[in-house]
Amino acid sequence: MATVVITAPPAGEPVSLAAAKAFCRVDQSLEDDLISGLVTAARLRVEQAMGLCLLTTGVSEWRDVWRPASGRGSLRLARGPLQSVTTVAIADSQRVFHTLDPAWYAPLPGSWPSEVGATPLAIVQPTARSAGLRIDYVAGFGDTADTVPQTLKLAILALVAHAYSHRDEAEPPLSAAEPWLSAFRRVQL
């Protein structure tokens, strides 16, 4: 199990306030703050459910060990698509992190699910008992809203519209956006 921390949130949202208001058929500005908040909440919900970062986002992932998830010895990261790996570090028994030489791992940019492959050099395992492996990386489709697939934008709009129309509910069901999310679901065998 990985602990994922967003270290550099995206600079904006993949769906503009104007687009969300038009989708909800709102033509006044009294509830702009509410609708903006719903857009952010919907993006976070989609990202969490799908294991994605829609726009360029800095991520720090903490794991106990390097445990390959594929036959190639690659470590599968929690968020994608992978743009780059900044640092891979392991902790010693004193919880001091040591940065690995980049020659010891091979990021697979553009991969989703995101993967970092081990090179023929063996990955040294951390001696700290828990969360001794830290991978800092950048994930997302790109820096601007036009790089995000339209279906994911429609999923956000569907969640925003449902939340706006059903304010008495705790949160909109993810099923409200399922037609647009199904193409991005990761299947595990």
Write the layout of secondary structure elements.
Elements: E1 3-8, H1 17-24, H2 32-50, E2 57-63, E3 75-76, E4 82-91, E5 97-99, E6 105-107, E7 115-118, E8 133-139, H3 150-165, H4 178-181
Antiparallel strand pairs: 1-2, 2-8, 3-7, 4-5, 4-8, 6-7
Helix pairs in contact: 1-3, 2-3
Provide a compact summary of the structure.
The protein is 25% helix and 22% strand. It is of the alpha+beta class and 189 residues long.
Describe this structure in words.
- By secondary structure, the protein is an alpha+beta fold.
- It has two domains: 8-52 and 144-181, Phage gp6-like head-tail connector protein (Hypothetical protein yqbg), CATH 1.10.3230.30; 57-136, no CATH class.
- The protein is 25% helix and 22% strand.
- It is built from four helices and eight strands; from the N terminus they run E-H-H-E-E-E-E-E-E-E-H-H.
- It has helices spanning 17-24, 32-50, 150-165, 178-181, and strands at 3-8, 57-63, 75-76, 82-91, 97-99, 105-107, 115-118, 133-139.
- The strands form two sheets. The protein has a five-stranded antiparallel sheet, with no helix packed on it. It has a three-stranded antiparallel sheet with strand order 3-7-6, with no helix packed on it.
- A hairpin with a 5-residue loop joins strand 4 and strand 5.
- The mean pLDDT is 88.
Fraction of residues in helices?
A: 10-25%
Main sheet makeup: 5 strands, antiparallel
Counting structural domains, the number is 2
* Overall CATH architecture of the largest domain: Orthogonal Bundle
Q: Point out poorly predicted stretches.
A: none
Structural class: alpha+beta
| CATH homology superfamily of the largest domain | Phage gp6-like head-tail connector protein
Strand content: 15-25%
For the CA atoms, what is the radius of gyration?
A: 19 Å
The fold-level CATH name of the largest domain is Hypothetical protein yqbg
